[in-house]
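forwarding from the other thread:

> can someone predict this with IPE?

sure thing
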Amino acid sequence: MSSEPSGGPPADLDASKLPAHIAIIMDGNGRWAKQRLLHRVKGHEKGAETVRNIVRACRQIGIAHLTLYAFSTENWQRPRTEIAALMHLLQRFLQSELPELKENNIRLRCVGQIQRLPAAVQEKLDTVMEATRTNDAMTLTLALSYGGRAEILRAARELARRVRDDRMDPDQIDERSFSSCLYTADLPDPDLLIRTSGEHRISNFLLWQIAYSEIFITDTLWPDFTTEEFIEILRSYQRRERRFGRVG
Ligand code: IPE
Ligand code: IPE
Ligand code: MG
């Protein structure tokens, strides 16, 4: 793929109707491992391979923004050993993917309570974000220690401070100024939200931003999720009529 990163979408996809921003709740790693009588961590390792494949596919198809839910604020309540394994895997992943991100002109960003991550992970993130800062073919955003409610509270606090300090009038708090205080300030709202492994819930992901996202839930477990199924979801997305509350 690195020899031809921007091959464009498959012929049956309409290049003018691609989602600008795709967000994915990557769920099902644990169940994938359990089905195989493996340790949950093996599922996360296999899931990292899916991440690589889907990032490549997005770059090749020409998706501008991809946001992946990798670790939620609630995931801190998992067993210490699983958290440690996930953090270690993340660090290894950042290390191994840097050359390809650079080669394919992909910028890495992250959203969430990054200060809660282990120092070694924060350092690796800084390195990769700095090394890809000027890349502009695609942004890959990792949601890490991310929670939608925490993000909204953070924005509310920031706006309250501005009002208190007379830098803003309460009437100036509108959707635009509120959005600008979210982690995702410089990203468009997701057009498409995908959740793997069949749960019909949002699990505190991008609560504000998904107001009008098209939602696709597949039963496929994240480690089994393929580029082919991803493209099938894009086809199905293109057949949907987005009305945004208006008449068709
Ligand atoms: C998603 O897979 C990865 C993370 C939440 C970190 P899970 O670990 O939630 O897998 P299941 O839902 O238990 O199968
Ligand atoms: C959502 O998956 C979080 C991530 C994919 C990182 P979870 O497995 O944590 O969500 P629940 O517990 O099924 O809602
Ligand atoms: Mg899960």
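The longest helix spans residues 80-103. thats all i got for now
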